[in-house]
TrEMBL record, chain A:
This is Aldehyde dehydrogenase (NAD+). It comes from Streptosporangium subroseum. PANTHER family: ALDEHYDE DEHYDROGENASE-RELATED. It comes from the Bacteria. Pfam families: Aldedh. Belongs to the aldehyde dehydrogenase family.
From TrEMBL, chain B:
It comes from the Bacteria. SUPFAM superfamilies: ALDH-like. Residues 23-266 form the Aldehyde dehydrogenase domain. Keywords: Oxidoreductase. GO terms for molecular function: oxidoreductase activity. This is Aldehyde dehydrogenase family protein. The keyword Coiled coil does not apply. Gene3D superfamilies: Aldehyde Dehydrogenase, Chain A, domain 1.
TrEMBL record, chain C:
InterPro entries: Aldolase_TIM (IPR013785), DeoC (IPR011343), DeoC/FbaB/LacD_aldolase (IPR002915). Pathway: Carbohydrate degradation; 2-deoxy-D-ribose 1-phosphate degradation; D-glyceraldehyde 3-phosphate and acetaldehyde from 2-deoxy-alpha-D-ribose 1-phosphate: step 2/2. It comes from Streptosporangium subroseum. Belongs to the DeoC/FbaB aldolase family. DeoC type 2 subfamily. One of its GO terms (cellular component) is cytoplasm. Transmembrane segments: none annotated. It is an enzyme of class 4 (lyase). This is Deoxyribose-phosphate aldolase. One of its GO terms (molecular function) is deoxyribose-phosphate aldolase activity. Keywords: Lyase, Schiff base. It catalyses: 2-deoxy-D-ribose 5-phosphate = D-glyceraldehyde 3-phosphate + acetaldehyde.
Length: 475, 288, 313
């Protein structure tokens, strides 16, 4: 047997303060209220730091700072704004190991992913939008498109720093200033980013970071002096935001939930399809809005594919997120774990068959084994609701038309996958799928040049690419 | 010898390519700008709205997968048919809007020209709104536009023909289907336009027109879970806000009413099309 | 010779073609990505020590030069038995691999060391000769004492779609091998696509290969991680389908301990730990041995080693 000895990434590289304030107008300030929250390492339940809970008054301070900075920032030539963004990108590259460790500590995701996926994409995103800052007149939105003003941005806990990059990079490139609220369970990399804003001498108030939970987010979204609201998170909260901004004239982009179908045809490249299924649902513990959580497999190869898939799941390594060989890390929070358990527990009573590979879960922390449900019907909760965890529902189909029909039979429409070696079938299926991103013979690929966003209840607006500028321009 | 008695038209709704009366049996009096009785218009109910949405949904797969060239041809055909009925529309606009014959003629001409303009966009909007994205890896990555789906349209009160054409054409040219709530005060040109649409090779259900009260019908459309987007151009401010709130329930794309007086004469730009377009990005590996 | 479940496959070239083209395709980008991901596994401390010794035991120490001489081969055999004469805990390699005319020299030099003698054969490296010559080449090496034969397939026939010809040649050479183990070299660098690598792997296995081997070392690219991944998938699936286990040998271009360990990880997570044995996995290499020895010494002493302290044979 070839056992891999533990290969932990050193956490000494991360210098955590016991407590963090709010980042407003380029300074660290204490919150006006008494609110404090602890952020924990989900793999050990160890408290990492205490962070402020911003009150409505704190949010107001941050918005005011952003408003003041808007005058300076929006008037600055794009070429100069670009240089600040390039500086940010460079510092992120320079500090990428530290930020990757910090992300894994606070989020629970494997260091392999934070190191090889999150951080490279974060830097790339700033590089990409830095280049747009002085080329906005060529983006197809008129000769001199104007920024919107102050952007209130609320991001989720699944890709904390990457979602920050998706929000802040285009906003700043277009000349907006921002107040960003990271998720309450993963604030640390956003606070490290605040420090980076100081290192690059970003003018005060251009980026403000306020920590807190739902109430802080609501205060930000509803602040009358915010011109633009950008939210990534659950469809439920997205709905509330869409409702609450009605009549305010605020421009809104929402990137919400999903229940992606990953369709495997009988002529697929099976080994790569298996990898794509694994990557589709177990990447980041399935805490991915575009996760391929519904496997639609052609009935003629279902047995063979499932056997291969189960064999492959047997090689997944679950455990210490900081171990470089870990494939599956910790579930981000006790609350999320409870949600995953609750939905998974509904699987069997509804008639599905549950399977997990033999896998030891650590004693401390929040963990859930990779899980497959077979014999799932469209009507089952696990086939309809977003689990946001390492849980795959397997359904079968007989014909391409049936596959598409089942894939589209959901209120969501964020992403989908299709696996077949037949080119014309790929294009047919891709054209019929009502989803914003279609991965053909691949899955869960991201790039700053590639627009991302959903159809239907998965939200509206696109992030990434030229399309991503529109969300931050007055057009 | 008595003068010949004119045979008047019964104005009905336009749903799924047919001209039904409102299921409610209701109608309302439409008067000219000078207060003269013109006709009774059907007063659509929420059930008519529901039928119209069902018709629009049914028409969506076919219309959205028609070739862009074909959709452009059909819109151009609509323009041709409208041109052929120029004098009828001039008369209706004079009656409905209180404008002079010459001004009415200009408005009909503008409506025809607008249709021609949008017809040409059918196979071009994708080229300017889509992109090939140079991702950092061995992948072919293409973003293309797709219609959002079923769009509810609250047509402007003013501009019973030009305004109406200006909100319908950009929605359907890209492959959406729609349910339109016509101008409440001046609904008659909308039904005559429906006659044009019905004879222009436009598949039934692509455009459905309801006459009646926007305040009554629009909230049902805004809250309808099988409507993907709503254009609130013609909604009064209070109605627009409540419709936007209702639209949140299934995350409809919302086109809010423009501030200030609507101007249907100047270049409309692409905004009315792009408001109801999705961007789909497809990835595929490049390898041998 | 052919295993029962697949016997009907070789009834004609068209049935064979139908079978090989019916195998699932391989998406190159996906296979490359999977191999690259496995290449990021971090093998440290005890695992690394274990992996280095395992890799040493899997090496087919190879010399395949026109300038090879008995002296050169004898020196290499000495190295094969005792890769590090100063450290008796260093295991011998699996085999030496030489041209047929040097088999006798190698057999004599290795004596009862347990290190096997492998010989390339069948008009190596191009394979461009008659079947008679190929069989004679094989018989000659076996007669001189080779216990393993590394044959090359007729890539020309394979690329021309004449799969039955390739099959028949392998089967004939297998017959000529007698009790010697047959490694079939696919020369993946000339097959160009991973689909072809998968088809050639199955073709060789159906024809009776005991091992499938990537390359001659004379064509670039030689062994790569993704090609080896595809071949490991093939032996894994062949065992399930035909009930017979076949070994895999990447050869050429494997020079560092880091490379070797990546291959071991690939084996472990693709075909599975059952293949982590010199009977089922070999590394065709020459300069690799010294790097393994240097890393081994670094782990023992804590100091980085220098090349002057290891023999060049």
């Amino acid at each position: 047997m070839f056992e891999y000895a533990p290969a932990p990434e050193s956490r000494d590289i991360v210098d955590l303060k016991p407590s963090y304030g709010l980042f407003i107008n380029g300074e660290w300030v204490e919150p006006l209220g008494e609110g404090r929250e602890k952020t924990v390492n989900p793999a050990s339940e160890e408290v990492l730091a205490e962070v402020a809970v911003a009150s409505e008054a704190d949010v107001d301070r941050a918005v005011q700072a952003a408003r003041k900075a808007f005058t300076v920032w929006s008037a600055m030539p794009g070429s100069e704004r670009a240089k600040y963004l390039f500086r940010i990108a460079r510092i992120i590259q320079e500090r990428s190991r530290e930020l990757a460790v910090l992300e894994s500590l606070d989020n629970g995701k494997p260091i392999r992913e934070s190191r090889d996926v999150d951080l490279p994409l974060v830097a790339a995103h700033f590089f990409y939008y830095a280049g747009w800052a002085d080329k906005l007149g060529y983006a197809g939105y008129g000769a001199d498109p104007r920024p919107l003003g102050v952007a209130g941005q609320v991001i989720p806990w699944n890709f904390p720093l990457l979602m920050l990059a998706w929000k802040i990079a285009p906003a700043l490139a277009c000349g907006n200033t921002v107040v960003l609220k990271p998720a309450e369970t993963t604030p640390l990399t956003a606070l490290a980013f605040a420090e980076i804003c100081r290192q690059v001498d970003l003018p005060p108030g251009v980026v403000n970071i306020v920590t807190g939970a739902g109430e802080t987010g609501a205060a930000l979204v509803n602040h009358p002096d915010v011109n633009k609201v950008a939210f990534t998170g659950s469809t439920e909260v997205g709905r509330q935001i869409a409702r609450s901004v009605a009549g305010s004239g605020k421009k809104v982009t929402l990137e919400l939930g999903g229940k992606a179908a990953n369709i495997v045809f009988e002529d697929a490249a099976l080994d790569q399809a298996v990898e794509g299924i694994v990557n589709g649902i177990f990447f980041n513990q399935g805490h991915v809005c575009c996760a391929g959580s519904r496997l639609l497999v052609q009935e003629s190869i279902a047995t063979e594919l499932l056997e291969a898939l189960k064999r492959r799941l047997g090689t997944l390594r679950l455990g210490d997120p900081l171990d470089k060989n870990t494939d599956i890390g910790a579930i981000n929070s006790a609350a999320q774990l409870a949600r995953i358990r609750e939905l998974s527990d509904a699987g069997e009573p509804e008639g599905a068959e549950r399977w997990s590979p033999a896998c030891l879960l650590p004693d401390k922390g929040f963990w859930f084994p990779p899980t497959i449900f077979t014999g799932v019907a469209q009507s089952h909760r696990i086939a309809r609701e977003e689990v946001f965890g390492p849980v795959l529902s397997v359904l079968t189909f007989r014909t391409p038309a049936e596959a598409v029909e089942k894939a589209n039979n959901t209120p969501f429409g964020l992403s989908a996958g299709v696996w077949t070696e037949k080119g014309s079938r790929i294009l047919w299926v891709a054209s019929k799928l009502r989803a914003g991103v279609v991965w053909a013979n691949t899955f869960n690929k991201f790039d700053p040049t590639s627009p991302f966003g959903g159809y239907k209840e998965s939200g509206y607006g696109r992030e990434g690419g030229r399309h991503g500028l529109e969300a931050y321009l007055d057009v | 010898m008595s003068e010949r008695v004119v045979v008047r038209k019964t104005y009905k709704l336009f749903i799924g390519g047919a001209f039904p009366r409102s299921e409610s049996g209701r109608s309302y009096v439409v008067s000219s700008s000078k207060g003269k009785f013109l006709a009774n218009a059907s007063k659509a109910s929420r059930k008519d709205a529901r039928e119209a949405v069902a018709a629009a949904r049914k028409a969506f797969p076919g219309w959205s997968s028609a070739t862009a060239y074909n959709r452009g041809q059909i819109l151009y055909r609509v323009a041709e048919m409208l041109e052929g009925r120029r004098s009828q529309f001039v008369t209706e606009l004079v009656d409905a809007d209180g404008v002079g014959v010459r001004r009415a003629g200009e408005l009909v001409d503008a409506a025809v020209d607008r249709l021609v303009w949008y017809a040409g966009w059918s196979d071009k909007i994708g080229a300017i709104r889509g992109s090939a994205n140079p991702v950092a890896g061995p992948y072919f990555n293409l973003s293309s536009t797709e219609p959002t789906g079923v769009v509810a349209v609250v047509a402007p009160e003013a501009g019973p023909l030009l305004g109406l054409v200006s909100v319908i054409a950009p929605v359907i040219v890209t492959g959406n289907t729609c349910v339109v709530v016509a101008s409440e005060r001046a609904p008659l040109p909308s039904i005559t336009l429906a006659e044009v649409l019905a004879t222009s090779d436009l598949p039934g259900g692509v455009v459905n027109i309801l006459t009646g009260s926007a305040a009554e019908i629009a909230p049902w459309l805004a809250g309808h879970m099988d409507v993907n987007a709503i254009d609130l151009t013609g909604a009064e401010p209070e109605l627009a806000v409540s419709c936007e709130q209702d639209a949140a329930e299934n995350l409809k794309r919302v086109l809010r009413p423009a501030s200030g007086k609507a101007d249907w004469i100047t270049d409309p730009g692409t905004g009315r099309m792009t408001a109801f377009l999705e961007t789909k990005t497809v990835w595929h590996p490049i390898g041998i | 010779m052919t295993t029962a479940p697949l016997a009907e496959v070789t009834a004609s070239n068209s049935t064979l073609r139908g079978f090989l083209h019916g195998l699932p395709g391989v998406d190159r980008v996906g296979a490359d990505a999977r191999a690259a991901m496995l290449g990021t596994r971090s093998i440290k401390t005890t695992s690394k020590r274990q992996a280095i010794d395992l890799a040493l035991r899997m090496v087919d120490l190879t010399t395949l030069e026109g300038a090879d001489t008995p002296g050169k081969v004898k020196a290499m055999c000495a190295k094969a038995v005792h890769p590090d004469p100063t450290d008796p805990s260093v295991p011998s390699v699996a085999a030496v691999c030489v041209y047929p005319d040097l088999v006798a020299t190698a057999v004599q030099a290795l004596g009862g060391s347990g290190v096997k003698v492998a010989s390339v054969a069948t008009a190596f490296p191009s394979g461009r000769s008659s079947l008679e010559v190929k069989v004679a080449d094989t018989a000659f090496a076996v007669a001189d004492g080779a216990s393993e034969i590394d044959m090359v397939i007729d890539r020309g026939a394979f690329l021309a779609g004449d799969y039955l010809k390739v099959f028949e040649q392998i089967a004939a050479v297998k017959a000529a091998c007698g009790s010697a183990h047959l490694k079939v070299i696919l020369e993946t660098g000339e097959l160009s696509t991973y689909d072809n690598v998968r088809r050639a792997s199955w073709l060789a296995m159906i024809a009776g290969a005991d091992f499938i081997k990537t390359s001659t070392g004379k064509v670039s690219p030689a062994a790569t991680l993704p090609v080896t991944l595809v071949m490991l998938e093939a032996v894994r699936d062949f065992l399930r389908t035909a009930g017979r286990k076949v070994g895999v040998k990447p050869a050429g271009g494997i020079r560092t301990t880091k490379d070797a360990i990546k291959y071991l990880v690939l084996v472990n997570e693709t075909a599975g730990p059952d293949w982590l044995d010199p009977d089922w996995f070999r590394l065709g290499a020459s300069s690799l041995v010294n790097d393994l020895l240097m890393q081994r010494q670094k782990m023992a002493t804590g100091r980085y080693a220098g090349p002057d302290y290891f023999t060049l044979d």
